[in-house]
């Protein structure tokens, strides 16, 4: 359940805090007061894209923070699988936005936007103002069904995707394999040349590094020898360090017998003398063996050029060159025994298609089984929303080709009058009817998903009168098992509120600011009167608003 929302420096909101309650939470207010900003801020905190224009004028940053109470064991388990652990039963999601970046956090730990969206999908479902329009697209229908059946479909769809990718891979190979005799001979000749080129090089993994090291040493041999000779002269010639240390050793040794402390010092310089003599011998050996060999340099350079040429041609490393050789040898054998290769390819295609067909059927069977359950539940929900003689079903056809999502081309169909055949939604339903259909679908999905919080942004679009009352009663029923947050213009829906919030717009210090406040009983009546009466609220309108609230209370009592 969404416990609270804190917004700072976002659009018209300077700072606002809302504490939502269980059941039906209604948000109302004049057009342009900032109702959409509230929903927009929730979306931002849940990982949606941020527009720089959302930052309040002259503000350094904007902040949105949501606090969720998580009591559902299933939700807790799914969150823990994502390494998200509620603290004291709460999840705090926040988003700080500056002119250059935004930072999302869950329980004070920085997370990616994709992580925030994944967590949000477990906690809350938001129905936007125009989302019902997506029902006009058949693709959305299959997405809704798959969402409803996702527990059983998940592994099957992963298998289906893998089968489809394997089948497509074979089809692509088959497409590439179709060549005439002239093309085949030409390719065979070229493959043979490249295979021989690699084979004759006798490549050894790691030799390029050894060659480069040797080449680098030989190209810098003059510098190396000059430095080595200077070092040798400084340490081993006349007046060198070796001669000086030897004299020092002799002097100390001659008097060491008179002082035991001096004996230890003489031993130290003796060790230095020994080390320096060893160093000189090794350096002299290095110099004598380090003569530049033109022939060796030439062979090293030639071999390095050959290796680098093959690396440039076949993938950038010796391992890649050897892998290319293996692939070319396989292709060579395929083309050499071409008829056998085509036969094997046809067998692989047949086997892959059979596996794909089987996977498509398994997915389709699950979908059809769940479609019966889903459409029955949606139809029952539609009856509650004043579709009195409605028939709601789902038709299945096959796509012309295999897809990674199977071969199902599914579509919701509806009939709103007795005796009329079912037809696609776009040919029957008005905008208001689409809103109610989406409300029914969201209700069913929320029940199956056990999502605790549902947000409806102006679900009342295009409805009025008796239908509005039915929608209000449905909202109340949903609020019995879920937390519902609803922005509405209809007093029938607002009257059902368990908590009613008013969003208003005022000018403070020559700056427009939106505020949100929770209404008390008397204030709720006044807001209902405004929604009923428009500009002028008379005593009669106030009485009507009071009566509407009392009627709503009796309906809520009867539904409890």
How are the SSEs placed, and which strands pair?
Layout: E1 2-10, E2 13-19, E3 24-28, H1 35-45, E4 62-69, H2 73-81, E5 90-97, E6 102-106, E7 109-111, H3 113-123, E8 124-127, H4 138-148, H5 150-177, H6 181-201, H7 207-219, H8 221-236, H9 241-255, H10 260-289, H11 294-314, H12 318-336, H13 338-384, E9 391-403, E10 406-415, E11 423-424, H14 425-428, H15 431-449, E12 453-457, H16 465-481, E13 483-487, H17 491-494, E14 499-508, E15 511-518, H18 521-533, H19 539-559
Parallel strand pairs: 3-13, 3-14, 8-12, 12-13
Antiparallel strand pairs: 1-2, 1-4, 4-5, 5-6, 6-7, 9-10, 10-11, 14-15
Describe this entry's structure for a reader:
- The chain has 560 residues and is an alpha/beta fold.
- Helices cover 59% and strands 18% of the residues.
- It has helices at 35-45, 73-81, 113-123, 138-148, 150-177, 181-201, 207-219, 221-236, 241-255, 260-289, 294-314, 318-336, 338-384, 425-428, 431-449, 465-481, 491-494, 521-533, 539-559; strands at 2-10, 13-19, 24-28, 62-69, 90-97, 102-106, 109-111, 124-127, 391-403, 406-415, 423-424, 453-457, 483-487, 499-508, 511-518.
- Strands 2-1-4-5-6-7 form a 6-stranded antiparallel β-sheet, with helices on one face. It has a 6-stranded mixed β-sheet with strand order 8-12-13-3-14-15, with helices on both faces.
- A hairpin with a 2-residue loop joins strand 1 and strand 2.
- It is flat.
- It starts with a strand and ends with a helix.
- 28% of the residues are buried.
């Amino acid at each position: 359940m969404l416990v609270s929302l804190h917004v700072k420096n976002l659009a018209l909101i300077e700072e606002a805090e809302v504490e939502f309650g269980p059941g039906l939470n209604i948000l109302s207010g004049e057009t342009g007061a900032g109702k959409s900003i509230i929903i927009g801020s929730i979306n931002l905190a849940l990982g949606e894209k941020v527009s720089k224009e959302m930052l309040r004028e002259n503000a350094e940053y904007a902040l949105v923070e949501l606090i969720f109470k998580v009591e559902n064991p299933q939700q807790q388990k799914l969150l823990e699988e994502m390494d998200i652990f509620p603290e004291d039963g709460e999840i705090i999601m926040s988003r700080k936005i500056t002119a250059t970046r935004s930072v999302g956090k869950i329980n004070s730990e920085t997370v990616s936007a994709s992580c925030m969206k994944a967590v949000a999908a477990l906690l809350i479902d938001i129905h936007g103002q125009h989302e019902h329009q997506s029902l006009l697209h058949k693709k959305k229908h299959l997405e809704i069904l798959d969402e409803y059946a996702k527990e059983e479909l998940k592994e099957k769809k992963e298998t289906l995707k893998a089968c489809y990718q394997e089948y497509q891979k074979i089809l692509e190979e088959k497409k590439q394999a179709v060549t005439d005799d002239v093309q085949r001979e030409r390719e065979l000749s070229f493959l043979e040349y490249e295979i021989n080129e690699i084979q004759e090089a006798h490549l050894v993994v790691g030799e390029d590094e050894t060659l480069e090291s040797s080449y680098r040493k030989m190209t810098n041999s003059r510098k190396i020898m000059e430095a080595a000779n200077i070092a040798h002269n400084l340490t081993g010639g006349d007046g060198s360090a070796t001669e000086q240390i030897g004299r020092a050793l002799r002097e100390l040794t001659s008097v060491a017998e008179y002082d035991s402390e001096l004996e230890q010092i003489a031993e130290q310089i003796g060790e230095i003398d020994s080390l320096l003599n060893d160093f000189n011998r090794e350096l002299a050996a290095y110099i004598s063996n380090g003569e530049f060999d033109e022939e060796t340099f030439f062979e090293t350079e030639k071999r390095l050029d050959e290796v680098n040429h093959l690396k440039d041609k076949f993938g950038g490393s010796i391992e890649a060159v050897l892998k290319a050789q293996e692939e070319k040898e396989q292709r060579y054998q395929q083309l050499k025994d071409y008829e056998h290769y085509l036969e094997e390819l046809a067998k692989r295609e047949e086997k892959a298609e059979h596996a794909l067909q089987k996977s498509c059927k398994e997915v389709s069977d699950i979908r059809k089984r769940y479609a019966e359950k889903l459409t029955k539940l949606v139809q029952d929900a539609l009856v509650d929303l004043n579709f009195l003689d409605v028939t709601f079903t789902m038709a299945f056809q096959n796509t012309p080709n295999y897809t990674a999502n199977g071969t199902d081309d599914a579509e919701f169909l509806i009939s709103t009058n007795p005796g009329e055949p079912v037809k696609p939604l776009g040919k029957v339903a008005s905008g208001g009817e689409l809103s109610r259909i989406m409300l029914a679908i969201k209700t069913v999905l929320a029940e199956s998903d056990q999502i605790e919080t549902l947000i409806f942004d102006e679900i009342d679009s295009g409805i009025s009168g008796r239908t509005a009352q039915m929608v209000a009663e449905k909202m109340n029923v949903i609020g019995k098992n879920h937390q519902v947050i609803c922005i509405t213009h209809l007093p029938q829906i607002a009257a059902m509120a368990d908590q009613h919030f008013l969003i208003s717009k005022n000018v403070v210090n020559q700056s427009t600011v939106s505020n949100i406040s929770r209404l008390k009983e008397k204030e709720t009546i006044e807001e209902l009167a405004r929604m009923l009466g428009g500009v002028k609220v008379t005593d009669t309108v106030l009485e009507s608003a009071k009566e509407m609230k009392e009627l709503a209370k009796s309906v809520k009592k009867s539904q409890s």
